[in-house]
Write a structure and sequence with these properties.
Residues 184-292 form the Acyl-CoA dehydrogenase/oxidase C-terminal domain. GO terms for molecular function: acyl-CoA dehydrogenase activity; flavin adenine dinucleotide binding. It holds the Pfam family Acyl-CoA_dh_N. InterPro entries: AcylCo_DH-like_C, AcylCo_DH/oxidase_C, AcylCoA_DH/ox_N, AcylCoA_DH/ox_N_sf, AcylCoA_DH/oxidase_NM_dom_sf. The protein is of the alpha+beta class and 314 residues long. It folds into three domains: 1-95, Orthogonal Bundle (Butyryl-Coa Dehydrogenase, subunit A, domain 1), CATH 1.10.540.10; 97-172, no CATH class; 175-310, Up-down Bundle (Butyryl-CoA Dehydrogenase, subunit A, domain 3), CATH 1.20.140.10. The protein is built from ten helices and nine strands. The protein has helices at 3-17, 23-30, 48-60, 67-80, 84-91, 174-206, 218-240, 245-270, 281-291, 298-310, and strands at 97-100, 106-110, 113-122, 126-131, 134-138, 142-145, 155-170, 208-209, 212-213. Strands 1, 2, 3, 4, 5, 6 and 7 form a seven-stranded mixed β-sheet that branches. A two-stranded antiparallel ribbon has the order 8-9. Helix 8 packs antiparallel against helix 9 (281-291).
């Protein structure tokens, strides 16, 4: 068994046995917070395949853990500038962090003072920001948490009113940080889409109409076959996403839409029970819908891909 497969099995067992474990407990018991931290900084020094295995399992159970923003994006940003103290804190799960990418807010840096606002940011105790060609760390003057449709993925508005910053380095690595975030999210989406397919297949086998399982009806067969094709194609796209920006753009577009379709068809196969509050199907649709806006919507990823393939517009 390969390391990603072993890690996948460990994470699945842990999440199944301790669904209410905190991020600190998860980091301590499984070591996921330091997965991408270089070995010289005390981490596991793993790569994209291991990252994707963990993210897929987290997406499968709609985990609220801040893996994407903290263990992937913040760690990558900190590693790019050799911030050993940050890597140590993030790697053992002592703190969490979020990363603000260029264009995510209206920010300006005057000397070492940061002013402006970020309307939507993923949850994290520390805030790392790419602004005016630099990577900085700053403490928001005000943090307002939003009530979100997907309650498992908190968002906040961050306001900075002339706050002092800690300069960490330049912004040369920001596209890599973004692409790894997109890759981790794509793997999460594959995990969620696979779970939707599994739920739909299980219901189609168990639910009977006219004396036979509804899965024997041609219309249901076609739905499930179409979703299977989408999930497997999304898995291939997610596996390639961490290679460079082109593959990340492909995965950002395809995996997002595949998850939306899988979540919607899961509800359709379940029928009336699929839209009830008690059934988990609606939670996957909410996660898929909110994920579709995280790191920009599918059409924005396609526009980035088009610029690479066809060149900038004349």
């Amino acid at each position: 068994m390969s390391l990603p497969d072993e890690l996948r099995a460990v994470v699945r067992d842990y999440l199944g046995g301790r669904p209410g474990a905190s991020w600190q407990e998860f980091a301590r018991d499984v070591g996921v917070a330091g997965l991408l931290v270089p070995e010289e900084h005390g981490g596991a020094g793993c790569g994209p395949a291991e990252m994707a295995a963990v993210a897929e399992e987290l997406g499968r159970v709609l985990s609220p853990h801040p893996f994407v923003q903290s263990a992937v994006m913040a760690v990558t940003a900190a590693a790019s500038c050799g911030a050993s103290d940050l890597l140590a804190a993030l790697g053992d799960g002592a703190v969490t962090a979020t990363v603000v990418l260029p264009g995510d807010g209206e920010l300006r840096l005057e000397g070492d003072l940061l002013t402006g606002a970020v309307p939507y940011a993923l949850d994290g105790e520390l805030v790392l920001l790419y602004v005016d060609g630099l990577l900085v760390e700053a403490v928001p003057t005000w943090r307002e948490t939003y009530p979100t449709m997907d309650e498992s993925r908190p968002l906040a508005r961050l306001t900075f009113d002339g706050v002092p910053v800690r300069r960490l380095g330049d912004d040369r690595a920001w596209t890599r940080v973004r692409d790894l975030g997109v890759a981790a999210l794509a793997a999460e989406q594959v995990g969620g889409a696979q779970r939707c397919l599994d739920m739909a297949v299980e219901h189609a086998q168990r639910r009977h109409q006219f004396g036979r399982p509804i899965g024997s009806f041609q219309a249901i067969k076609h739905k499930l076959a179409d979703v299977l094709l989408l999930v497997e194609s999304a898995r291939s796209a997610a596996a390639a996403a961490a290679r460079d920006g082109v593959f990340a753009a492909i995965a950002g577009s395809y995996c997002t839409e595949a998850y939306l379709v899988a979540a919607g068809e899961n509800i359709q196969v379940h029928g009336g029970i699929g839209i009830t509050w008690e059934h988990p199907a609606h939670r996957y649709l909410k996660r898929a819908t909110s994920d579709a806006q995280l790191f920009c919507p599918p059409q924005a990823h396609r526009a980035r891909l088009a610029a690479h393939v066809f060149g900038p517009p004349a």
